[in-house]
Amino acid sequence: MHFNTFLFRFGLNPDDFEPFISDPIQSDTGFIYYLDQDHSKIPCPFCKSDNIGIKGYYRKDINCSDSVHVTDTVKVKMIRYKCKCCNKTFNKPLHGIKKYASISNLSIKTICLDFHLYKSFDQISKKHHISKTEVIRIFDEHIPSPKRLPLPEVLCIDEFHFSSKSNEKYCVILVNWQTKEIIDIIRNRKLPYLREYFSQIDDKELKKVKYFVSDLYDGYRTIHKEFFSKSHHIADFYHITIQLSRALNVLRTQVMKQLNPSSIEYKFMKKYWSYFISRSSFIPSSKIFKTKSNQEAPFFDLFIKCVKLNDILWNGYDCLQDLFSFQKDQFFSDAVKHFEWLSNKLSLSSSQLLIDVAKTYSKWSIEIGNAYSFHPGYKNISNAIAESTNNKIKTIIKDAYGFSCFERFRKRALLLLRH
Q: What are the beta bridge partners of residue 157?
């Protein structure tokens, strides 16, 4: 390979070296090249004197990776100069690599490209045969921190578990419901952090938000009242349903534990627990349930028998089906009335679990009513896109075995999710 072509391939300047190259030595990861730095002298960078002498030599190793899983090393014989006027020592710089660095600029660019892929820092370090600490340093120095995107008309807000630290336990994501883009990640879901974040946003931008979508966390309701009071606060469908589903599943467990473990009802309720918190239309009508002890019964008939074993369980299941059957895109007043009726029905139960669900529905009646109301120009507004983004973020955290620095995590997550 021609001398200049070889150096240009690694992003180095041929003028910095003596025009001679020895035969490369093959290593486990690539090739090792031995070069000598150009012997031409330069003025002293301190006093500008030309009275320069050579003090000594030292070897500098440069990592030059330009392809997948291949890392070539250039070993350069560097010259250390000494000024005879001011007695200070200095080195002549090499173009294409920073001072004190051991990785060429071209290799750094190659590594930066890998930051846009779903790869952990550990995987990138093994690919380029450098330490994980060096990869993190390159990421911190060469990848700029992403800026917050403008607030949209439909703003989705949700949280995810980040670390065990009290000030970073649950982080918050902001997502654009229309474009499905992640707007930003906030360090903590606690009110002081949320207030500090939204108070830095201009009032004109805050007023652009028409719909504020969240789960049933009290902090989000407070933030909506303080910063997005002119928008409609919509409760997410999943979190509306899960309130009753979880209570019903606890009731199922309580009823099941009162049965004989060898009975067909006990085995049915344990195995097919999901049917007790799902739509009745999902229950197969022609299927036969069989046990290992040769007990059998029609699937649908056995389900009805089990759910009617307890009046409270039956009442909760009936309320859940009423919730599933209620159609979306209603008038706001009709939606609120329906949930007031459902809350009253649940509150008549002797179970504290169902009474607590009724209290939750009453407390969030406006937000739940907005969820089931008709909104011109928008259909099926929910927090599903934020929940989906949360799953991607959890994958990023899991692949990295966690992050110790929130700012580094935020930069990494936004880089991948916006790419």
A: 174
CA separation for the pair 169, 205 (Å, rounded)? 28
Q: How far is CA 200 from CA 185, 224, 248, 299, 384, in A?
A: 15, 15, 43, 58, 27
Query: Does the pTM of the predicted model rise above 0.85?
Result: no
The answer to whether residues 63 and 71 touch, using CB atoms and an 8 Å cutoff, is yes
Main-chain dihedrals φ then ψ at residue 181, nearest 5 degrees: -90, 145
Of the pLDDT bands very low, low, confident and very high (cuts 50, 70, 90), residue 159 is very high
Q: Which two tokens stand for residue 68?
A: 């997948």
pLDDT at 239 exceeding the cut of 90: yes
Residue 173 three-state SS: strand
Burial label for 236, CB within 10 Å (0-12, 13-18, 19+), is buried
Q: State yes or no: pLDDT of 22 exceeds 90.
A: no
pLDDT at 128: 81
Count of residues making up the chain: 419
Closest CA to 63 of 92, 38, 31: 31
Alpha carbon separation from 328 to 232, 375, 406 (Å, rounded): 16, 10, 39
